Amino acid sequence: MALEHAILVSLLEKPGSGYELARRFERSIGYFWTATHQQIYRVLKRMENDGWVDARDVPQQGRPDKKEYSVADLGRAALSSWLHDPIEPESVRHDLAVKIRGAAFDDPAALIHEVERHRQAHRDRLTHYLAGQARDFTEPELKPDPKPRLDPKPDPEPQPAAHPAGPQPPPDAERELQHAVLRGGIAYERMMIGWLDDVLATLARFGPDR
Question: Is the pTM here over 0.90, yes or no?
Fold first, then answer.
């Protein structure tokens, strides 16, 4: 995937300025595809020159006009073409995993602090994801959990929700697929926390008193 495709998806969800787009990458999209502000502005300019996005000046009270970007027909066609192209499953490069194996040839217990640091980072990201899920994807008839669970155990099997009689509105593909991606992020962070707990328990067996 190129940065252009991530930008197209974000602008189709909601048009915005380069600054607003960069903020979205910091808050949500950036957890799955990272880019600096400079990269985003540079690629946006190229996409505008190539006719993939349109730009219009939007007046702002007391501030300079901002340039708001939206997806043009050429951009939609480019995204559609990419969506229909197969992609290969990603190969994972995991520095920490190599460090853990390499610790067998040094002092395994010395790696505990580093693993704990990674575990905390995953807990922080999981907390962020769960807060976003409670904010954006809580069904109206359900109350959000005031204390979202951070442990890696799988969620209980969901029970069918009761719906009022009568015709139901069609599913909202944008909302439901955004939630599906977020659930994937939650599952991944819980998996990483569980794995790092296992690593920490293993490293602890090689402490000074072994």
Answer: no
